[in-house]
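A reminder before we start the practical. When you read a complex entry, don't treat the lines as separate problems. The point of joint prediction is that each chain is placed relative to the others, so the output describes one connected object in space. Small molecules and nucleic acid strands, if listed, are placed in the same frame. In the example below there are two entries. Take a minute to note the order of the lines before looking further.
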Amino acid sequence: MSSTTSNHKRIFALVDVNNFYVSCERIFDLKLRDRPVVVLSNNDGCCIARSNEAKEMNITMGQPFFQIRRLEDEGILKVRSSNYALYADISSRFREILLGFTPDVEVYSIDECFLDFSKMNFKNLDSAAAEIRNTVWRWIHLPVCVGIASTKTLAKLANHTAKKNPELNGICILQDESAIRSCLEKTEVENIWGIGPAYTKLLKQNGIFNALSLSEMDDLQARKQMTIQGLRLVHELRGISCIEMETHPDPKKNIAVSRSFGAPAAELKDLREAVAVYAKRACEKLWHEKRLASTISVMIRDNPFNTERFYSNYQLAAFQNPTDNMNEIMKTAISLLSQIYKKGPNYKKAGVILGGLIPVSERPGMLFSGKKGRTADALNLLIQRQTAKKLSFASTGTSSAFWHTKFSKLSPRCTTRWEEIPRVRSQ
Amino acid sequence: MKDACIREKDLLIVDCSLTAVPENIVVAALNGELTLKRVRKIKGKLYLAAENKNYKPIPINEESDLIIWGVVVHVIHHIKP
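Here is the predicted structure of the whole assembly.
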């Protein structure tokens, strides 16, 4: 890349929502605030999100619901089914708020975004971080932590530090040498972004236990043992930015079908036709690769050379269950399109991206990745998912009764359904 | 909230980004329930008051278990039965 980027001091922020699913549930249901809450996986199987209060009760990630049902019966614990419609919508609002701080926002996952502040002129990073926290809290009532540093890996570390140390008030900025050193020293290798169980084992065998010693690893050795990826990581820990922002979805984990149009399209019906065809093609690719999609996004944009009023937008939705159902995929694509379509621009390009791909035969690993001792939970989840699938086929065309039992503690889809909009008492 | 021209089944547009000031109608959470109140300043102190006179205004202070959720900025009233 050009020398201007490498010489320039980089600033990255990682903004992450605390206990995202629980926090989403707490936006509209105020009874859930300041008390133990968990959110269950599909089919109400096990815990996939816990409030801090629930963590303090030693409820673990992936814990089967039947083990904690008693706590709910006794009124100590509040339990919710996962409400993906709500979470996906809140996630996109979260991203939109962050776009107000910098145009360079990378959606890293449903509840965290990287922000590139390198080109921004923030006199005081502390107050910028505080402003982000305040704005997200006031506008959508979500608590977030902000980590800021000169590389993405360090920003991730800073965020982790902010989360683990309540006295920091959700903000950690790693700028001066000594602060970075002490933070690295306190971070065990398995908690570093990009270090999985295999590398953890390898590093520990080599006597490298914390991020500081990893950052001091010899370049040649790092490259030899952990490939170029590992060397990059070591450099990132030293404060040299090597991992760029990915403002477009990673092609390896996605199936994308997008085309530039032969002639510009302005009408919704024309775009709808195009998006339907792309969604269908994306779905066929999905079948071919024997995968299920967890998310879908639709993008549209007009001519990028029309710099004066260039319009480009995209919207993401998460499927309730990972799916390869063409009908569901096409329907969702069309509904996403109608959310981002704006009359006026002459659209030149549209695309459909299926994300969060998992093999048809495999349970979703993303919920528990990076966590320890999950084999039993994984099996549990696999069985649940397969049962769910079989049952859902059986119930197709009958009634939706099964659906209700599966998400028996589902909160209203407050932000996406008129009929489920919150009600207010007027006395 | 008849005095404020808000009736049953009306649709409220609530702006969470605003800071409530006296005379604003707000959605507030009282004991975990969302309710509609008006912010009042009485003798220099802030209260949440219902428009209905049968209810006593609730003081807004550190001890009260209430959260101001957002400020009502518009009301949409359905006229088709």
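Discuss with your neighbour: The longest helix of chain A spans residues 268-288. What might explain this?
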